[in-house]
Amino acid sequence: MPPMNKSPTPSTLQKARIGAAAALGFPRWLKLPMVGDVDNRFAAPEVQLKDPRFGESQGLPFVMEVPVDDEHTPPAGVGKKVDDAFFQHKSRLLFNVSFACGKPQGLLRRGVYGDPRSIWFNVFFGYYEIDVEQRAWGRPFGYEADGTTIHWDDVLRIGKSDWNYFSNWMYGVPDAAIDKTNLPLRGPQTTTTHLGRRDINGRRWDVLELDMVDVVSAYFSGSGQGLVDRELWSFLWRASYGFPLGKRVVDEENFFAVPMKARLYMTFRPAKDDNDFGVPAYQTFLFGGTINQRYSAQSPSHRDTNEAFLQAQLAAVEDVMKRHYADLGF
What we know:
The protein is of the alpha+beta class. It is 27% helix and 25% strand. Strand 1 and strand 2 form a beta hairpin. Helix 5 (152-171) packs antiparallel against helix 6 (175-182) and helix 5 (152-171) packs across helix 7. Residues 1-5 and 7-27 have low confidence and may be disordered.
């Protein structure tokens, strides 16, 4: 089946929008490329975890937006990579994210994100807004046309997109390592569970759990197949996540696959033409946390600690939902 025609991409003028002006309430078309928004907020309330059991997180104080379509746009054309791998037969979507991961030990220092010995290995948490055009998609992202049934392929595809491309491809993980975990979406042990709806701040959210989803890791031992520099962007990603370990601490090869578990809160709303597309759209919101099940497999005590770690992430996410996004939900 040939790829479907994508919706028209923003003009050069639209791509030259001024982010600071948008943050001050000026029109949407003034935003800079890559400056996104969640619920019309350009400066993102950061999810923060500081717990003596697990340590501290760090994130970014703004929302990053990546168009997923067949155009090569910043950063490094990663949106086209995701489109080619997971959404080639879909109309374009806008991926907006505010995330946090384990805090490195200092500026330009090695991070726990790429350290297989750490509970933070390959882990991030936070929230997304994913926008699609109503006419082109005919349904919200993450939902069937009835607006209640979960469209699991969407959720799995965006999860793998986030780990494999928005995070680790940008970090410098080679394509050959990523390709091994792109498909199938569901491995032999993968489970997807709809845990019903939960009330948060008087609004209802679908609660989703995905487990044993294989994705690539950013582990680099310092020898063998190395990281790829994708322009200056990879340096910026490594500075944000923490620089690679650079020494061998496990027997696995560089960039080995890791089974992940995620628990997410999801909702959507229709939007008229006052959005980044300029036409009626659906906006889907996901808030949640993740753990790596490699850590859980070490012992029953590690499994219990990992589940407590996930709960701590969700508590931090729920705090942001209650304080800053109380109007979202069904």
